[in-house]
Amino acid sequence: MPEIFRTDAPNVMHETIDDEVVIVNMGSGAYFSLVDSGARIWSLLGNAGMTLEQLVDALAMRYAADRSVLSAAAATFIEQLREEELIRVVDGDVPPAPRPDEMVVNRSFEPPVLNKYTDMETLLLVDPIHEVSDEGWPDLKQKPRDDQRPG
Fold first, then answer.
1. Does CATH number 3.40.50 belong to domain 4-121?
2. Residue-level pLDDT at 140
3. What is the distance in angstroms between the CA of the first residue and the CA of the last residue of the chain?
4. Domains of the chain: which residue ranges?
């Protein structure tokens, strides 16, 4: 059975701003930037996931490049994402492939680049958002003042 890769939510947070995806690994404090084909691959993996073969099929529908080039670039990129713990392998049925009408054909292809930044690791790791309960953050429960404590 082929491996299904998907983003590692909730351990990884991400936001798309214009054509760039910014990803934060909440465990390591590192953050990442993806553009162009990297951003496209990230959006394809999403929460449903995708096999490597499906990913290459989707890239072939969008980019004007030899399939072997797309396959090698996608495999290398998937390995980088796994090493940084941004994606994970999930069990289950293989999700349906993207429909061809959702793709834009014949764009030039540049291999994806995972830009990593570590300048805010300490700040991100001590941020109290890591201590989120089921109620969310911030936890607004008030501690009783001394004059409100049972006596």
1. no
2. 46
3. 65
4. 4-121
Q: Closest by alpha carbon to 32, among 44, 45, 46, 15?
A: 15
What burial class does residue 60 get, using C-beta atoms within 10 Å of its C-beta: 0-12 exposed, 13-18 middle, 19+ buried?
A: middle
Residue 64, Cβ density class (10 Å: 0-12 exposed, 13-18 middle, ≥19 buried): exposed
Amino acid at 45: L
- How many residues are present in the chain? 151
Q: What is the tens place of the pLDDT at every residue in 20-47?
A: 999 999 888 899 999 999 999 999 898 7
Are 41 and 18 a contacting pair, CB within 8 Å?
A: no
Q: What percent of the chain has pLDDT over 70?
A: 74
Q: Which two tokens stand for residue 79?
A: 């390995």
pTM above threshold 0.90: no
Q: What is the pLDDT of residue 103?
A: 55
Give the per-residue pLDDT at 102: 55
Q: Which amino acid, 61?
A: M
Question: Tokens at residue 140, please?
Answer: 């607004």
Give the helix ranges, DSSP H, for the chain. Answer: 36-45, 52-62, 67-83, 121-126
Are the beta carbons of 115 and 32 closer than 8 angstroms?
A: yes
Of 18, 33, 60, which is closest to residue 115 (Cα–Cα)? 33
Phi, psi of 16 (to 5 degrees): -100, 125
